[in-house]
């Protein structure tokens, strides 16, 4: 039985049993309550029972609900007793199963109290239906939440607990416009907005110098098809779209050629020549539209898919199948170690659509008919401002549209690698591909799929479609690969020539030990060649091979832990920590291109205090080729040695892998080093990453080897600064922030995650980011407020009318959630406030947006930005350190976007009001970063910052005027959550 609360290791089983019993009891009584609520809601929609609750029949809504109050109250008490004790102070209660259930139980008790009161009131006797008392969205959310909690209890605690599939009400599509603009109530009206749908007019002067004008229609020329097509391709593409395919190892010479070569067999004394089943599948329809390639981890499935996708023999057979029709091919390689798009259905569909529309632009209107029409009518300015957010539903519709348009005139063959690396419902992705081949379209579509032999794929494909098990077919390929690799070594080649029988035995024994796992042979060969000694001959190679474990995980353990001493393991732990830190930061800001570190990024992150000093003291200078080569060589050597070949260094194009890097003296030629610096460091195979991340004990053991003072995020922040101070390209001063912005966003995100900083380097390095970018920035001398960070806070058109920003970088750092940096910077700036000149003080206008407003900008939703949700710790810090550069919650300022008067407190209230309207607040929210977080921020504003309880939020284009207390009451009436009731009570106190 897994722990259901944050109990310490010393807690006995009785405590866990109490927690388990409390959770089980709550789920049972809450499920019973839900079933009654669902039934009452359903009855309220009918003709026979709509008014029964008002008339007071034998089974009224009030009576039915009241029956649940006692059991639910008892379960609430039991759950309260199971909450984390003093030993669990660092664990948020909502992150535990008892804590999450306790929260939902509190909300349900509040629901019952409120509804019971309303049903007993006189107003409830006037034909109010149950739907009016308990909203449909609330009911649906409750059912979903109970389903999630029940499944978690079953999976993590008690697998004997029966998880019922609860019925959920149908939610009618919201009339709320999903494309509704951000709240900008006083923005200047767009041209023609007040006459939407009418022909735009242009005023023409009749006679020069005359004040008389006439109006003539403005006829916009339709946007050319080529521009619309290119725009759609640009929005479909993502930077990591081809990374995985490029990183898949190319097949060794003649490897997998058997798939296209006829085989000879003798039966009844007669020779028969037969074609491989896969080749036959490519050539015709007899075997069906889907072919499944499976195999052990490391057997070479991805390499085979790439081989097939690229091979001209594939196209020859597909042409034969098509019978004269053109054949369209596209492929995708799922990669669990890659970016979100590399392991998701959106990434799959975007990539396939991009490939198809790149080669056949004529199908773009069929894929996106509405978007195509819209883009044809947009001006260049409107098109540049348009942002598309691809949902799975949109992409599925587009892909179906393309298939419907393609199939009548072309045949289609898709190659999809790594279904087991898809991050989602594997049954759903299987159904997706099966459904593509249904009906008549199945005769024009072929799909080659690969995956590990997991049960979900075996059940779907093993007996339903033609397939092959790769490890059963690659003996000769591995034999040839090993023989050729050994021959690359001059001394071993001589031994093989003089001792052919021993050499033959060695190769056969190694291949047999590999048991179909190509990766094992590759790693074993690396180790055998590394340890080869000339004077001991082939016998030494055989001894090394015999000593190697047969399982991949055991092989990784030998290479990584047993073959390295403590100092070497510490260096390996640093490399591993840097890779993990980058994955975390890149995933947060959704920069899929930065998911893997480049060799140049590693080059400035591996050294210790020497580079720390350089980051804050060196000036910007272009790196010399010699220095750059030395840096890259050091990084590449350390990475390859400390991971014993378990990491690879890959070029972005087809220029080879790490073995192609030559760090000889290149004089001042930068082309080679620029190529080397841009190469990405990745795991050579999924099994390697799985071992580090999932094998019991590996992660803990690696963390224990990490130096105590090492912080990977601080190192990567430093790396960014040193890269900017040592550019490989010619230095250029300009004002194109977009060029630097991805790196800035990564650097400041790494800065937010810094934890170990005994030398207090974070503030100095964050300021160095500002200083370095400012050095590159081509400043406008006639604008005292000109600063690069200003353009990270909003568009240029707003700056022309907005209040001046006199501390833009500090505002940006606040927006990125750099709590410790902001705290230290406020104290430092306040200390020198009295020393500022009159001119400097004059620039410090009170109209600027204060830090508190930036700290609460993402109160209820990140809304798909690179910024974190508002942090209560940062808000508390700002409220406790109010000063001229950080005024309090009631400080008036001019809103950056609307030019209307605001205070940080009113801004918070507006965020809450807007979040309710937009559906950003969840019912029964058990996420520690959800309602509990923003409710804490509101409490801080009132209790710590003494926010004005009588404040009034002005009406806007979406909502009427409302008081601060009214906002809290509106939230409570909508969600009936305990946190919101507490906020209402706080406002009334």
TrEMBL record:
Keyword Protein biosynthesis: no
Pfam families: DUF7791 (PF25053), NPHP3_N (PF24883)
Domain DUF7791: 572-726
Region (Disordered): 164-202
Biased composition (Basic and acidic residues): 176-198
InterPro entries: DUF7791, NPHP3-like_N, P-loop_NTPase
Keyword tags: Repeat
Domain (Nephrocystin 3-like N-terminal): residue spans on this chain: 275-452
Domain of life according to the entry: Eukaryota
Gene3D superfamilies: P-loop containing nucleotide triphosphate hydrolases
Name of the featured protein: NACHT domain-containing protein
Organism: Trichoderma ghanense
């Amino acid at each position: 039985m897994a722990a259901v609360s944050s109990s310490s290791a010393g807690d006995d089983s009785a405590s866990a049993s109490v927690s388990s019993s409390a959770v089980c009891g709550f789920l049972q009584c809450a499920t019973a309550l839900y079933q009654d609520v669902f039934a009452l809601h359903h009855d309220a929609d009918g003709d026979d029972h709509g008014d029964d609750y008002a008339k007071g029949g034998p089974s009224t809504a009030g009576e039915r609900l009241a029956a649940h109050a006692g059991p639910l109250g008892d379960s609430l008490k039991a759950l309260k007793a199971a909450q984390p004790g003093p030993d669990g102070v660092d664990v948020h209660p909502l992150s535990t199963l008892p804590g999450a259930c306790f929260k939902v139980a509190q909300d349900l008790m509040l629901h019952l109290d409120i509804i019971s009161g309303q049903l007993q009131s006189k107003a409830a006797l006037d034909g109010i239906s149950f739907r009016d008392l308990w909203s449909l969205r609330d009911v649906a959310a409750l059912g979903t939440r109970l389903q999630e909690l029940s499944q978690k209890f079953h999976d993590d605690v008690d697998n004997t607990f029966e998880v019922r599939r609860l019925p959920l009400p149908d939610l009618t599509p919201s009339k709320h416009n999903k494309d509704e603009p951000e709240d900008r109530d006083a923005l200047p009206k767009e041209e023609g907005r007040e006459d939407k749908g009418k022909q735009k007019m242009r005023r023409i002067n009749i006679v020069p110098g005359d004040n008389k004008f006439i109006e003539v229609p403005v006829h916009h020329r339709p946007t050319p098809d080529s521009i619309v097509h290119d725009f759609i391709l640009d929005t479909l593409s993502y930077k990591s779209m081809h990374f995985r395919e490029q990183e898949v190892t190319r097949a060794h010479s003649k490897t997998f050629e058997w798939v296209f070569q006829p085989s000879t067999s003798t039966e009844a004394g007669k020779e028969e020549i037969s074609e491989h089943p896969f080749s036959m599948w490519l050539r015709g329809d007899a075997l069906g539209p889907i072919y499944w390639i499976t195999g052990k981890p490391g057997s070479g499935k991805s390499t085979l898919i790439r081989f097939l996708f690229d091979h001209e023999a594939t196209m020859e057979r597909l042409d034969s199948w098509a019978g004269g029709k053109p054949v369209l091919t596209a492929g995708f390689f799922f990669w669990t170690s890659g970016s979100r798009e590399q392991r998701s259905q959106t990434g799959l569909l975007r990539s396939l659509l991009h490939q198809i529309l790149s080669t056949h632009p004529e199908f773009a209107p069929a894929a996106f008919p509405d978007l195509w029409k819209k883009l044809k009518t947009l001006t260049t300015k409107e098109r540049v401002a348009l942002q598309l957010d691809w949902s799975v539903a949109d992409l599925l519709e587009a892909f179906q549209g393309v298939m419907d348009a393609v199939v009548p005139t072309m045949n289609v063959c898709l190659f999809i690698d790594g279904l087991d690396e898809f991050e989602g419902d594997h049954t759903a992705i299987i159904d997706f591909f099966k459904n593509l081949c249904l009906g008549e379209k199945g005769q024009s579509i072929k799909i080659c799929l690969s995956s590990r032999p997991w049960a979900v794929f075996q059940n779907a494909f093993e007996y339903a479609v033609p397939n092959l098990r790769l490890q059963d077919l690659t003996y000769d390929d591995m034999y040839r690969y090993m023989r050729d690799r050994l021959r690359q070594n001059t001394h071993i080649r001589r031994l093989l020539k003089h001792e052919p029988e021993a050499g033959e035995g060695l190769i056969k024994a190694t291949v047999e030990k590999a048991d179909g796992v190509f990766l094992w042979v590759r790693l074993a060969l690396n180790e055998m060649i590394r340890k080869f000694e000339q004077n001991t001959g082939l016998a030494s190679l055989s001894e090394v091979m015999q000593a190697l474990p047969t399982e991949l995980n055991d092989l990784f353990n030998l290479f990584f832990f047993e073959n390295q001493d403590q100092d070497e393991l510490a260096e390996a732990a640093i490399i591993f920590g840097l890779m993990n830190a980058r994955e975390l930061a890149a995933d947060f800001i959704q920069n899929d291109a930065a998911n893997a570190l480049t060799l140049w990024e590693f080059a400035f992150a591996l050294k210790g205090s020497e580079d720390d000093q350089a980051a804050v003291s060196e000036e910007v200078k272009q790196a010399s080729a010699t220095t750059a080569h030395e840096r890259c060589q050091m990084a590449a050597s350390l990475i390859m040695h400390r991971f014993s070949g378990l990491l690879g260094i890959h070029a972005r194009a087809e220029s080879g892998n790490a073995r192609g890097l030559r760090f000889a003296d290149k004089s001042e030629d930068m082309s080679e080093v620029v190529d080397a610096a841009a190469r990405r460091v990745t795991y050579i195979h999924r099994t390697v990453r799985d071992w580090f991340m999932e094998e019991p004990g590996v992660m803990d053991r690696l963390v224990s080897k990490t130096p105590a003072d090492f912080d990977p995020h601080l190192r990567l922040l430093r790396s960014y600064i040193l890269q900017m101070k040592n550019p490989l390209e010619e230095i250029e001063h300009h004002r194109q922030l977009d060029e630097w912005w991805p790196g800035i966003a990564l650097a400041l995100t790494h800065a937010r995650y810094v934890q170990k900083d005994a030398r207090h380097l974070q503030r100095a390095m964050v300021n160095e980011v500002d200083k370095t970018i400012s050095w590159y920035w081509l400043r406008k001398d006639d604008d005292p407020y000109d600063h690069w960070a200003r353009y990270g806070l909003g568009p240029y058109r707003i700056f022309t009318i907005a209040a001046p920003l006199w501390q833009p970088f500090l505002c940006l750092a606040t927006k990125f959630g750099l709590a410790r940096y902001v705290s230290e910077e406020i104290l430092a700036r306040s200390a020198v406030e009295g020393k500022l000149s009159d001119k400097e003080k004059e620039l410090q206008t009170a109209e600027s947006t204060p830090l508190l407003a930036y700290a609460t900008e993402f109160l209820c939703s990140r809304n798909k930005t690179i910024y974190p949700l508002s942090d209560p710790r940062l808000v508390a810090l700002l409220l406790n350190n109010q000063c001229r550069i950080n005024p309090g919650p009631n400080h008036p300022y001019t809103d950056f976007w609307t030019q209307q008067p605001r205070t940080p407190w009113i801004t918070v209230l507006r965020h809450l009001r807007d979040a309710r309207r937009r559906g950003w607040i969840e019912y029964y929210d058990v996420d520690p970063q959800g309602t509990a977080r923003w409710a804490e921020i509101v409490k801080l504003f009132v209790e710590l910052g003494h926010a004005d309880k009588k404040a009034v939020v002005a009406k806007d284009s979406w909502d009427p005027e409302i008081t601060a207390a009214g906002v809290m009451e509106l939230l409570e009436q909508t969600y009936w959550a305990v946190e919101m009731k507490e906020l209402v009570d706080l406002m009334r106190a």
